[in-house]
Amino acid sequence: MTVSEALSDFTQQYVTQWKTETGLPPASIDLYGVPSPCIVRTGENWVYWEPQPFNGKDKDLSRVAAALDIELQPSIHPFYTTQLAGDMKAQFGSLVVSLVQVWNDEDFIRLQENLIGHLVTQKRLKLSPTLFIATLDSDLEMVSLCNLTGNVVLEKFGSQERTVLSANLVEFLQQLSPIVEMVK
User: Fold this and answer.
1) Which of 7, 20, 28, 127 is the most exposed place for a label (fewest CB within 10 A)?
2) Is 112 inside a domain boundary?
3) What is the pLDDT of residues 126-174, one digit of tens each?
4) Rounded to two decimals, what is the model's pTM?
5) How many domains would you assign to the chain?
6) What span, in angstroms and rounded, lies between the C-alpha atoms of 120 and 95?
């Protein structure tokens, strides 16, 4: 199975879970007022969304690689360029994570800038490079793809403290369970 297939499968489970529990597609307060082809309906101060194919000018993260003169793990490219979608909350073992996704073309540019900033900080701190893929409630930890091994790791920001969560991105995505959080 490819990263694109695993991501699409999880996204479909996520959307289905939302529709089953609420009768509506996924909703987001954070993305209200931010244009995206994903928006299918607008609420009082939230948007309902469904994933759309990624059609950006850049088909990969080669600008990030070029900015730092490094090669990126091949699996990171389809993770961010398969679809446009809102961030998706999920359970991975005992962790609650929010998968970072691209919402629109401007968001893809911002994502690349953030990845570059993350990698520059790691280089300055002499840490091995990682590429974030999910956030946690804690600002001190994130889930990332190790650029050297391809492992998905839980990392403490700015430190060498890393815990391997799965051998690769496909395996990680296959182990996620969608979490529906109602918009209030």
Assistant:
1) 20
2) yes
3) 999 999 999 999 889 999 999 999 999 999 988 889 999 999 999 999 9
4) 0.94
5) 1
6) 27
